[in-house]
Amino acid sequence: xxxxxxxxxGVANVVLAAGLVVVAMFLYGREHEVRKVERQIRKLExxxxxxxxxxxxxxxxxxxxxxxxxxxxxxxxxxxxxPPDPLAVRTEGAxxxxxxxxxxxxxxxxxxxxxxxxxSALAAQASGVGAPAPETRETGDGAAGAGEAARNALxxxxxDAVAGEER
Amino acid sequence: MSAPMMxxxxxxxxxRPARADTKAGERHGTWLLVxxxxxxxxxxxxxxxxxxxxxxxxxAWLMLLQEEPSRRVVxxxxxxxxxxxxxxxxxxxxxxxxxxxxxAEPYRMANVDQALMAxxxxxxxxxxxxxxxxxxDKRRKFVWIARKVPREVESRIVALAIPGIRVMKEKxxxxxxxxxxxxxxxxxxxxxxxxxxxxxxxxxxxxxxMASRAEASGKGALPVPLALDMRVQxxxxxxxxxxxxxxxxxxxxGLVMDVNTGEVLALVSLPDYDPNDPNRKExxxxxxxxxxxxxxxxxxxxxxxxxxxxxxxxxxxxxxKKYDARFPLRIGRAKIKDYHAxxxxxxxxxxxxxSSNIGTARMALEVxxxxxxxxxxxxxxxxxxxxxxxxxxxxxxxxxxxxxTSVTAxxxxxxxxxxxxxxxxxxxxxxxxxxxxxxxxxRDRETALAxxxxxISEATSRKMRHLFxxxxxxxxAKRAAAPGYRxxxxxxxxxxxxxxxxxxxxxxxxxxxxxxxxxxKYLVLVMLDDPRPLPETHGFATSGWNAxxxxxxxxxxxxxxxxxxxxxxxxxxxxxxIRWRRLYxxxxxxxxxxxxxxxxx
Lengths: 167, 601
Description:
A: mainly alpha, 2 domains, B: Penicillin-binding protein 2a (Domain 2), Beta-lactamase, five-stranded antiparallel beta sheet, 20 helices
């Protein structure tokens, strides 16, 4: 009984000793590896954090550069800009109204110098004066003519408004 | 550390049993084990088994379970994330930026003088005497060296690697908009506790809201969207600032509110302060209170609008009805006089546009004492208005509600409210009759409608719109009419109380208006504290000469920003344009030039 116990303990001793050496070497190697990877992770995390912080700082800086107080001061100083005159404000709808009509639509209405007529009518309507748009010099047909007509109409509209305020 | 021990141990172990072996092996010929070993050897063998097991366990524990000791130069401070604050278009108004703070652990410091020398090379402004005293006290565990230093300083300190000096990563609260919206946003202390404005609200009543913005990971937080629009805020602030300088006023305030949702798009109180100043010298000065909510003011004739709405709603007055304004009205010992006295019978719209005290008083008397008080209660003028801003003042009401106080209150004398409160009530008079509590957070129309309270009928509200518009066409608010924006509004000039008496030369001028009056969308309030008369105002300093034109300029600037289309095709608009030109001259850049250059480009 005692002998068996002693034998078991003896074998266990040897096995444990050998096992310890093996396990220790294995774990040592593993730990070394893990530490290396951990160092790598830490470094990357740190780099990521730095980048994130930098992005955030830049975003805030960009925001402070866009501060309307600063922009207004700069615009007045460097660009000689000021808040728009009430007449300078045109809404989307008004801009659309100033576009020349499509040729097909105009032809349906049976007019010849269609763009100009439609425009002067619109201009008159928009300015509320009821006078026909001035500047009806003959211009060539086609796209160039339409652009010319639109510009004339716009100028007519503005002149009307300016004349209206001076009255 | 464990490896060499382990290597040494087996050889010793092998030696001992081998010695025992030589004696036992004589009888049995076995080489390893003895039949009857001596108890001492048995004991030693057992001891070794236990020892190995312990070493193995310790090794396993060290490698698998224990974390590496966490004593690094840089530590991260744990804190609840504070959300960014953004305006309605997503512009950042307040944000946390990473900053590092330097601290020392004196009990770990080897050489204080050396450490201080090294620190001085990076931070030259240190108070060396004080720090040396503190750092030499080895019982201390923690001493701040410098808080929230820039990035370069931080990296240089880390590079120095002074024993006992460490860096703590913190967050600093910054306000990229500076003083632009300082009174609404407020500020925090160095430990990021909100001290005023929305920042304080987030820490108090808004805590639940703030928590709802935090991300589940606990690392970040969604931004808090305010109703403010920075473009509108800037337009309002710039115009108020200019007016304050021009009229040499001691203070100015203004706000822009969406009348249908109660959202405050802009709120300015001048003089303001820079929330980024770490010393808060400006912010804590006495004249920097938020005039729009933290102060109460007599709004003067602006309050007449409330009386008119009440009388029209009550049915005792209608637009064609005439009131006797020939003589001053005597009530007890008091005499009610008119500033723009007409000395004749006035219709209701005439009373409004001439701002007749006598007429308004008569209208209030017709309604009666009790009903007048009840109406003021209904529109919430008798109670403190509470919004997200923690700075809110209680209205100043007459001590006794009597005929004379009712009469003076009808034209805004003798009771003072927050200007924001006045604006909320004015909004209810023109938005169709629904009183909506103002808010600084984003709110949609449905929510506003659900929480609104009807104070007057749609029909009365339509009449009020008419009166407001009429007043801007031919009444006291003429100079507010930005061409084409269909502005309507009411002016008010209150005499300031100086040494306990109403003063004739110190005034508080107010304008509350809205545009476009055919479908009111935005309300504008402008208030100037003690504006001085100028030669160009012909020696007048009443509201019509200072607060009103300021509001007009504000409206002309914010109208296009808010997508309100000016309509210049009406007769009124043309008159407004002529008046506008007379006030401000022609634009320096003429329009045909612009159109031409745009077309040729």
